[in-house]
Amino acid sequence: MISYLASVRCSIVERMEKNRVGALIFFGVLTAAFIGGVDSYLEDGILNSNVSIHPYFEFNVPRNVTTAVGQTAFLHCRVEQLGDKAVSWIRKRDLHILTAGILTYTSDQRFQVIRPDKSDNWTLQIKFPQIRDSGIYECQVNTEPKMSLPFRLNVVAKARILGPSDIHVKSGSSITLTCIIKQGPHDLGTVFWYRGADILDVSPHPNELAGNDRITIQNHWTDGLTSQLHISSATIADSGNYSCVPTIAAPTSVDVHVINEEHPAAMQHGNKNTASLSLHCTLVYSITVMVIKFLR
Question: Is the pLDDT at 244 greater than 70, yes or no?
Fold first, then answer.
C-alpha cells in the first residue's frame, strides 16, 4: 500500500514538473512572437504612420495676411517635432534668406524672427512694411527633401484725404474733397464715397432726365488713384462725415460742417481764429494790469 502511494506521488510530481516546463516554454514563445511582431511593425512603418518622428507643419495658421503700409506684419509658421532641424524664412521673389534659426541674414533690420523659448512657433516680423514688401514668403525646414510652406503678404496703402480732418464752409460755397491712394502691387479697383452710412450715388435714376450734377465724383490715375468729390452750392444738409472707401485699401474720412453766413468768422475757420482772439485778449489784459501797477 505504501509502495503504491509513493508511486502515485511520483507520477503527480512528474506531471507538475512537465506542466511547469511547458508553461515556461509557451510563455517564452509568446513573448518572442510579440516582440518580433512589434519589430516587424516598426520596420514596416505601420506604427510610424500614426506617430511621425519627422518635422511637420501646422496648417491651421493664417497664410494670406493683409496689412496697411507702416503697420507691423506677422507671418506665423508652426513646426512640430523639429528635432535637430532648423527653420528659415525665404523671400520668394529673389530667393533671399531673411532668417535662419533665430539669426537675421539680411541687412534690412525690419525683418526679424520671433521664437519664444522652446516654442514651435517661428514668426517672421516685418516692421514698417511698404508696398514693395508684398509677395510670397516661405517658411523652410532643412530636411531631405526640403520642406517649405508659402505665405502671402499683401501690403496695401491707406487712403488719404488732403487737408484738415475738420472742414468748415459757408452755406452756398463749394466743397472739394480729394482722396489719394498710392499705387499698390495690384489694381486698386475703384473708390466709393459715403456721407455717414449712406453711399453717394451720382448716377441718374431711371425716372430722372439727368443725375444730381450738384454732386460729382471724378477718378483718375497718376502715380496712384485720385478721387475727387465735388459739392457745389453746399447746404446745411451737406454737413456730415465723408468717407473715402477704396475697394482695396484702408478707408479714411473727414468731417464737413456747413454753417450759415451770419455765424462768426471764427466758427467758419475752426478753432484757429478763436485761439488767436483768446491770445489777443490775454495780451491786452496783461498790458492793462501792468500799466495800472506802474501808475500806482
Answer: yes
Amino acid at 235: T
- Which residue's C-alpha cell is 495658421? 61
Q: Which helix (H) or strand (E) holds 292?
A: helix 271-295
Q: Phi/psi of residue 125, each to 5°?
A: -100, 130
- Which residues on adjacent β-strands are paired with residue 155? 67
- DSSP H or E stretch at residue 289: helix 271-295
Neighbours of 296 (CB within 10 A): 5
Residue 272 has pLDDT above 60, yes or no: no
Taking alpha carbons only, the member of 214, 211, 213 closest to residue 174 is: 214
- Record the pTM: 0.53
Residues 6+ apart with CB under 8 A from 261: 170, 171, 172
Nearest C-alpha neighbor of 142 from the set 107, 90, 196:
90
The predicted model gives 151-166 an average pLDDT of: 90
29 exposed, middle or buried (CB, 10 Å; 0-12, 13-18, 19+)?
exposed
